[in-house]
Write a structure and sequence with these properties.
- This protein is an alpha/beta fold and 584 residues long.
- The chain has 4 domains: 101 residues, Rossmann fold (3-Layer(aba) Sandwich); 180 residues, D-amino Acid Aminotransferase, Chain A, domain 1, CATH 3.30.470.20; 67 residues, 2-Layer Sandwich (Dna Ligase, domain 1); 177 residues, 3-Layer(aba) Sandwich (Rossmann fold), CATH 3.40.50.2300.
- Helices cover 40% and strands 18% of the residues.
- Strand 18, helix 19 and strand 19 form a beta-alpha-beta unit.
- The longest helix is centred in the C-terminal third of the chain and has 28 residues.
Length: 584
């Protein structure tokens, strides 16, 4: 009987690599929880794509559909590939495991490795070198902790996600001055406490392992050739021989957890001295997986064979010196590398000559590979290229559109159209990205200022029920409005259809709304259009200081004051705009 697996994932690297690895082995591959336009769906090895509702804390529909699918298809194994699919399965494994075999690590290992603070605590207890860090909860802690650090420093969240909000990812931030530090700290308000960590110089390296009960079955190592100057995921990597010290540190860490499964342990290594420091552990399939498979370390297939067939012996050799590139990300890296200051030792830059020579050499020696392009499965790469081309054309159109929107003639034309619409308007909708900062405040002001009209707000960020940040609530309270009880609402076709006028705040809002709902373009206006001579865009204050929220809200109050003057008197509240402005 043919084996069958269900693979859950988003990105084009690990998700597509797992699909290809298992598909090439003759295993029937089904997928779910994928993005609608994922390049992985074009793979010849995808037998079936299933539509399963997204995970939501307050709704178990996703779980019921997943159990129904597992029961019907009788998968040999279900493999979640990314953090936001692993977390729900770890949390609900008791409900899901009776219906099929899941690839999940132990709860103990997950509890430690999904928490960067606990990972570092374990590493220190084993005598492994980790960056110096101090946990901070508030600005006072941060100011005190900074007395022992020099810039740049790293702000690291405890985990990549909050359990109740898997759509919002918490990124590690490297900051170079006080202003950047304050902005980063405020933008990570939902992720606190944070670790203030010293910046470690060196090149990124990863040790990739398949283990069973703490014993190594398969091992691989790579180094990063291209990584963003200020840190982040690499776009070009090379396979290297295993370094005994890094392998030993990785095994010690995972053996302490009696680890079973795949993992990639990340290090920073100083090239001249060989000194290293542990960065983090990816207790799942990783972004550089295409390189390992191309070099001969086929981790997805080995994992399947270990779990389902009981196999424990795997080839211990792989090709060293093979390179693998993510072409889209590497194009961005090349631009960033060209612009970066090569005299700054804290930036991971490369000489242009070395980059060109490296590429030519790897092509001549036939050791250049692509994350997405393979001869046996070319369609994902072709689709990726088409998406990239469309993206570049869209960016050019957006620049032209922005220039036209900003022009005086265009603004006067928009004001004329808006005035005509407002004469008969009865329903007004305010839209920003998340519906937690600008649009809910605009709704609150408009409800008071525009009595008689139906006013609501929404955001296109696809997570409902989010709270407004503390600075937003405080700035709104100073103006006499309550955002503490507000919860975000996601923009829907019904909301758009029912609105007579839709106000957005910046270029991104305008482009997102008009691109998603092209038929209502004539009803969408920038709120800044209402006040001639003022800024056209009202920028998003999310993650910034309190003063920025106050200034943003002053702009909104003024704009709605101008709006009130355009609405027929019978629809206007007697509250004066100057009274609202004084509150701010």
């Amino acid at each position: 009987m043919k084996r069958k697996v269900l693979v859950l994932g988003h990105d084009s690297q690990s998700f597509l690599s797992v699909i290809r690895s298992l598909g090439r082995a003759g295993i029937e591959v089904h997928v779910a929880w994928h993005q609608p336009d994922s390049v992985a769906l074009r793979s010849r090895y995808v037998a079936c794509a299933h539509d399963i509702p997204s995970f939501r804390v307050e709704d178990d529909l996703w779980k019921a559909r997943m159990i129904e699918l597992m029961t019907r298809e009788k998968f040999d194994l279900v493999i979640p590939c990314h953090d936001s699919s692993i977390a729900p399965f770890q949390q609900h494994r008791a409900d899901l495991e009776p219906h099929g075999r899941l690839y999940l690590i132990s709860d103990e290992a997950y509890g430690v490795l999904s928490d960067k603070f606990k990972t570092n605590e374990l590493a220190r207890s084993l005598g492994l070198h980790v960056p110096r860090e101090i946990v901070v909860n508030n600005l006072s802690d941060l100011e005190q902790a900074m007395t022992g650090f020099d810039y740049p420093v790293v702000l690291k969240p405890r985990g990549s996600f909050n359990p109740g909000d898997l759509a919002s990812r918490h990124e590690v931030r490297k900051v170079y001055d006080q202003n950047e530090l304050n902005k980063a700290f405020h933008s990570l308000a939902d992720a606190r406490p944070l670790a203030l960590q010293e910046n470690v110089l060196g090149r990124g390296a990863g040790v990739e392992l398949l283990m069973k009960s703490g014993e190594v079955l398969l091992a691989f190592q790579h180094v990063r050739l291209h990584e963003p100057p200020r840190g982040g995921g690499s776009s070009y990597r090379m396979s290297t021989a295993l370094t005994p010290e890094l392998l030993d540190a990785s095994v010690q860490l995972l053996k302490a957890l009696d680890y079973t499964g795949v993992a990639m342990v990340e290090f920073k290594v100083e090239p001249k001295t060989g000194r290293w420091a542990l960065m983090e552990v990816n207790a799942r399939f990783w972004g550089s997986l295409p390189l390992a498979i191309a070099a001969g370390a086929d981790f997805p297939l080995a994992l399947f064979q270990m779990l389902i067939e009981g196999r424990t012996a795997f080839p211990g050799h792989y090709r060293v010196g093979l390179c693998c590139r993510n072409w889209e990300a590497d194009a961005g890296w090349l631009i960033a590398n060209l612009r970066a200051d090569r005299k700054d030792p804290t930036l991971t830059t490369r000489p242009i000559g070395a980059v060109m020579a490296e590429t030519v050499k790897n092509v001549i020696l036939v050791r250049e590979r692509s994350d997405t392009l393979t001869l046996d499965d070319p369609k994902p790469a072709l689709h990726e290229l088409a998406k990239l081309t469309r993206g570049k054309l869209s960016a050019a159109r957006r620049k032209l559109s922005s220039a036209l929107i900003r022009s005086r003639a265009s603004r006067r034309w928009a004001q004329s159209r808006l005035n005509r619409r407002l004469r008969s308007a009865r329903r007004i909708l305010f839209v920003c990205k998340g519906n937690v900062c600008r649009s809910p405040f605009a709704e609150a002001v408009a409800r008071e200022r525009l009595a008689g009209l139906e006013v609501t707000s929404a955001g296109y960020f696809p997570v409902p029920g989010r709270r407004s940040p503390e600075h937003a609530c405080a700035a709104a309270a100073a103006a006499g409005f309550d955002l503490w009880a507000h919860r975000s609402q996601v923009l829907t076709e019904e909301l758009v259809r029912d609105a007579d006028v839709i106000f957005v705040f910046d270029k991104e809002n305008y482009e997102q709304v008009t691109r998603t709902y092209p038929r209502i373009r004539q009803r969408v206006f920038l709120l800044g259009t209402l006040c001639p001579g003022d800024a056209l865009f009202i920028d998003d204050p999310w993650g910034l200081e309190a003063e920025t929220f106050a200034e943003c809200y002053r702009q909104i109050v003024k704009a709605i004051g101008c709006l009130a003057e355009k609405i027929p008197m019978s629809e206007r509240s007697p509250v004066a705009v100057r009274q609202l402005s004084k509150r701010l």
